[in-house]
Design goal:
The chain is an alpha+beta fold. It folds into 2 domains: 115 residues, no CATH class; 176 residues, Rossmann fold (3-Layer(aba) Sandwich), CATH 3.40.50. Helices cover 29% and strands 34% of the residues. A 7-stranded antiparallel sheet has the order 2-1-4-5-8-9-10, covered by helices on one side. A 6-stranded mixed sheet has the order 11-15-16-3-17-18, sandwiched between helices. Helix 4 packs across helix 6 and helix 7 crosses helix 8. The radius of gyration is 22 Å and the shape is globular.
């Protein structure tokens, strides 16, 4: 679990830090202030031994298809603050046990061994002087050990290589504002194996009281989650309401990344405000059970109020609100402790 994170030269962040992170964290702020970018920075940190994470970040922004000539513009350059790749991206995170993890991403030139002729003809050359754009990913563990990875473009497309193979020391799950259910179905299968899915079902009854169980199946080779509402047949989760889907994805992700971090963009999506206090109760209980940390974003004032009220009434107030603001052209984080947030809500002070 991270207690603080620092970000330099990534997206909108020139030199940013956020501290006082707790088990459950909610990131607020105006549009385009960097809420989603902060989740991406933390995700990049946790996946610092996997070069494919750069492509994953692009896909999360809707950039899923690009040819090699577009990679620099759509894949590499947007990662750097002001599109300036002369300075490396540096992200660091301090854990509650004192361990510090860092990742550095820098632009590097790479000689291509391919020459494109026409639309579909590639000729391999032994000594090409064509310079392609590449990125080098350097992850440094708390012990000081370094793992290097490369990702680059050439005439064949995007390629990646791990110069030092290593199982990630950190685990994380990123839930986009509008997530699909394929990965959630795989997560449910893992829980079914160890017979822990019933705990998840109990929490999901917040949204759908008739829910008796969840299970997985295959439709045309694709994993699908089904729910039992006591009807004659099981129903696909996809037709059982956006709120139930959203809470299912969140709770399954928390359970899957035991001892890891769950990053949720626009956590309130699909969930009615009248459920949110109980939703936060479920998120908090599940995160404690699986010793996971949650960092989520929101635009919704009622979501913030519900979170504060839920954790106030719980046995432990392990929640923190962080508001991002732009001050002197730099993004800054303001942390709200329980007492300060209580006063802000009581007086109607704007904390979104």
């Amino acid at each position: 679990m991270f207690t603080s994170v620092s970000v330099k030269n990534f997206r909108c962040f020139q030199d940013f830090s956020i501290d006082s992170l707790d088990r459950i964290n909610l990131i607020a702020g105006k549009n385009n202030v960097g809420k989603t970018a902060l989740l991406e920075a933390i995700f990049l940190l946790t996946g610092g031994t996997n070069p494919g994470i750069v492509v994953t970040l692009a896909a999360g922004r809707g950039v899923e298809r690009f040819n090699s000539s577009a990679a620099t513009e759509l894949l590499f350059a947007p990662l750097f603050s002001n599109f300036d790749d002369r300075n490396p991206i540096k992200i660091g995170g301090l854990q509650i046990n004192g361990d510090r993890h860092t990742v550095e991403l820098q632009s590097v030139p790479r000689k291509s061994t391919w020459l494109v002729v026409g639309e579909a003809m590639n000729y391999e050359l032994e000594n090409s002087n064509h310079i392609g754009q590449g990125l080098q990913l350097k992850y440094t563990s708390p012990s000081g050990k370094i793992w290097l990875s490369n990702i680059w473009q050439d005439a064949q497309g995007i390629k990646a290589e791990q110069l030092s193979k290593k199982t990630p020391l950190l685990t994380a799950s990123f839930i986009a504002a509008h997530a699909g259910q394929a990965s959630a179905a795989a997560q449910l299968s893992c829980l079914e194996v160890v017979k822990e899915e019933y705990n998840i079902v109990e929490s999901l009854r917040i949204v759908e009281p008739r829910l008796q169980r969840l299970t997985t199946g295959l439709v045309a080779g694709m994993p699908v989650i089904y729910g039992d509402l006591g009807l004659e047949r099981l129903l696909p989760l996809s037709i059982m309401g956006e709120g139930l889907q959203r809470l299912t994805y969140i709770l399954l992700a928390i359970a899957k990344v035991r001892n890891g971090i769950v990053l949720i963009d626009e956590v309130e999506n699909g969930l009615h405000h009248s459920f949110m206090e109980k939703v936060w109760h479920a998120i908090g209980n599940t995160a404690r059970k699986f010793d996971s940390q949650v960092i989520a974003t929101t635009h919704n004032y009622e979501c913030i109020q519900a979170a504060h009220q839920s954790f106030t009434e719980s046995q432990k107030y392990d929640f923190r609100l962080h508001r991002l603001d732009i001050i002197d052209d730099n993004v800054r984080a303001v942390n709200y402790k329980q007492e300060i947030l209580e006063t802000a809500i009581a007086t109607g002070f704007e904390v979104r």
